[in-house]
Records
---
Amino acid sequence: MLLSSQSGTTMDQVLDKNQEKTVKSFYILRQYSKTLSVVVTTSW
């Protein structure tokens, strides 16, 4: 692990970026499932 040799702030930044990615993908997933349920409901 290269990160362990670097400062803690770098690790924090990486964690923040990962969290941002997770939040974004979660939001996209939620929007996608909403759209999907609407499509399924209207197609029935």
---
Amino acid sequence: WPFRPSSPRVARARRPPQPPPPAPFGCPPPPLPSPAFPPPLPQRPGPFPGASAPFLQPPLALQTRAPAEASGGGGAFYPVPPPPLPPPQPQCRPFSGTDAGERPRPPPPGPGPPWSPRWPEAPPPSDVLGDAVLQRLRDRQWLEAVFGTPRRACPVPQRTHAGPSLGEVRARLRGVLRLVRRLRGLSQALREAEADGAAWALLHAQAAPLRAELAERLQPLTQAAYVGEARRRLERVRRRRLRLRERAREREAEREEEAARAAEREREIDRWRVKCVQEVEEKKREQELKAAADGVLSEVRKKQADTKRMVDILRALEKLRKLRKDAAARKGMIGINTWCHLIIPKATSFPKDGSFPRSPATTSGRLLLSSI
């Protein structure tokens, strides 16, 4: 006998559990819990629910569920994603005060994780404190981190009363000298007006306020602290002026040394330029002398060559004459030298008109010359 369910509720209870469908809109799965990032707790309901205030969303127990799950049916169920983590804590000191109804919290057990120094210390687990107390602690830490009181500014140190300035002392001394000069004139006038009582009383009435003003102006100058401070300031100014003068003298000496070095450099440059010009002129003169020597040497060599050529020609002529003389001697003819010694002395007298008389000897000599 098959078992028939008496009611559809029992049949739905025996149906095998179905896996939940994938998260809508491609939402990533919630992160795994870790000591650095503790799991988020249910948030308290607030008047501003929505995506713009995730830390004010209602807890999971108060969120509405799908009608199918609420009725126990087998419809599609989309689990509500967990709320996002709170924003990271800013780098500022938490508020050290305590509320009226809370006890002071103990100091944290130790430093936070080294890889995330901005995260505060993880609160104690929920089994030690209640969920409400733990949530209130988290809310208070977040509010103190975001809306905490700013650090107090450093107190401005109170400036001590500065001593008298040199300008003030100078003005006071000038005023005192002016009053002394006027009182000296009034004193002389009072001595001269001793006989006239009315004039003396008028001058005395003018001198009394000046004397009081002089006493008032001289009152600070009689104080040792006032005078000491003025002297210290004067000494400081004197030393400063001495330093400035010394620096001015040093700068002047440096400028003079720089000018001397510049003049020395200019002289060195001038000497170098003169040396370069002299070297160029010497090279040019050497080139000119070398060119002149080359020209003279070429002329000498040319004359030597001409002389050698003439000597060679004369030697050749002498050899040729000797050969012809030998040939003429072999033929029985008179030689030219003999002819010159015999014939030329006879023709030493020449007529003034330049004519030369014909003679058999000259004819024979001409024949001999033509034969030679």
---
Amino acid sequence: MREKSKEQPQEQPEFLYEADEIKKAELLSIMMGYGESEKPEAVSHVLSQSDQKRDIIKAFIRYGESNPPEGPSMKVSAFAEDQELHQSIQSLPYTQKVLVLLTSFYPITDADAAAYIGISEEQVKVEKQEAYHTLAESTNTEQDQIPAMLTFLNKAYKKVPLTLQQQDFTAVDQAGSTSETKAKGKNWPAVTTAAVILLAGGLAFALNDPIPEETERTAAANEEREEEEEFIIPEEEIDVANQELENKKEELVVQLGLSAEEVNQLPVVEMAKGQLMHLEYLNEQNDPYYSNLSEEELRQEIDVIKDSALLSIAPPLSFLNPDLPMYNQWLPEKDLYTTSDVATAFFHDYAQSLRVVYEEKLNAQREEMAPWSRSYFKESELPEDERVLREKIRENGFDFEYDFDQNRFHVMIGGENFDTAIMSLDPVFQQVLNNLPELNLGIYGELHHSGTQSPDDHLKALLKIDENINFLHESSPDMSDPFTSSSFLFSSLNQFEMLFAQYISGSPEKMIFENGFLKEDVKQSWEKVLADESLKGKEIYKVVDFQYRLLKNNNFELLRGIENTSFLLYPDIRHWYHFNGNSTFVDFPLEHYHGKVYELYTTPENRNMLSVLQAEQIAMLYLNSIKMQDTEVLYSFFEPTDKLPSLEEFQTLVPPDILGKLELDRMNNIYVNSTGSNDSLSVNVEKNDGTMLIITMVKTDEGYKVKFTSDQMFNRY
């Protein structure tokens, strides 16, 4: 028998980073122009952070600013156009280069990009336009083609071989010393990280922000440097602010009649904590913007952050005062309409979240009595904590009643104190606040589905939001751009969209089908809409009619893809629209949900129903008509102009056999590449062979129509 080896097994190296972290950092290093020999150093430096929650993108922004690539950038594509664009991006001014990378290859908005770099959102837009202009000149193409070219470049980036492995980044424990980081045989120092902060009212996030270090320093020297470093803000001041926050939270516990845990979960508290974390972030990130401020300017920045955080920890009704110092700080010399708008928006999200907390607390089970029995007691006969809770609910702008159908207490925004508080607001917002729906909102104002909500509950909320949207639009001082005058209108549009998607198409939280068929309560709710003459012409009616007819035509069976559908809502109120792309892959001919849409709604008698569809879906139907060799349907999608021939002439010029020669089996993606006016926009269609078709569409009374296409397929007709 073979003798067992007496050698001790070799200790496995400790991998410092997850494989996906390394891949993400390596890919970004390539996109930023670092060559093969420069990649390991750049990636190691960025990943060498003490905080587990690294922001690799933010780290690379700072690293690249002080350590630009020196050698030639890597080859990223076999296509000359992709490689030329990649190299052109590297030649941009650093800020423009970063903005192109962030907003083209990551799901990062202009507002988030502004926070990453430390400039205004307006400046982001200016810099991006200049970058696109420069890229167009350097690649000898039209500026409006740059976004499409960036799409192809993004696909090329994703195919670049990534060679760095976990074994390249290991830690070896040595006796009497801390673990050292090894990357390609070189040691790199630890990099400090900053906290994530959240600012209220749609302000930006400040994300992890490492301090660029000299790569030849040892870890010990780096620690000594940090000890000697003078912070932008004295740590004692941050400690005092945090203690003030704790004191304010303790006061809020008493003011609201909630537990400390319940108060900590309120969005206003989460936001305030995030704002004060920003002070610690400023100390760690050493951003030139702050370090270059005068003492007076820096003090003003710090005070704004502290005051906004601490002032927001207060009972909800206090925010209905349009003269609140916090609003004057944000909106100096603004009129009553504007301050009332901000007050309404701030109060709304706070009150909606607090209403849910109060309702859950009021319906909590007690050993001595159930909720239904408590409804019969005089308040003087209730236990002390229940009596106090009811007083606090009314005191803070709410009322309640017992719903015997649901066997639970129902808490509502309203009551005597609420009525008194809204009297100081502009009459427009008094009316809006008296017509609020009941929503379950998260910290960012996103909708949460409640299991107790029926389709009719959704409908009631939608109708109230619809009334408020139209009322705010009609009363807005600036009819040309309502978003400049009403932030509450903007949030109402978004909340309507989210709630309507649940009502009309379903979602992971709120399915509208059961056992393969439309739920009966959903069907009955839709039929109530269609039977209500007062709703005809409204977005709710038009889309319910569209969906109901389609499903009725298919025996109300579940159609695959229906849960991902979206509709064009309030096109005359929204002066721009966010499009997220329709589908990752689209096979032709269309099947399932969109196939049934094509079958039912491209007939002459039903085409007017297509006006509720977004431009991407019209583009899909247009391409499907080519695949189906249906010249009559194809013709119906063209913009009606004097140059368009008659249908008979078109069918003579474009017989079905010509359409049959066009290769049209699969599209990788269909998305709108424009955030400008809704009236005219560009739809990008990424073909399976990697080429791009761009369709310019215009909005008419009958919905979106095709104006022309980049392949000039039918231009001569």
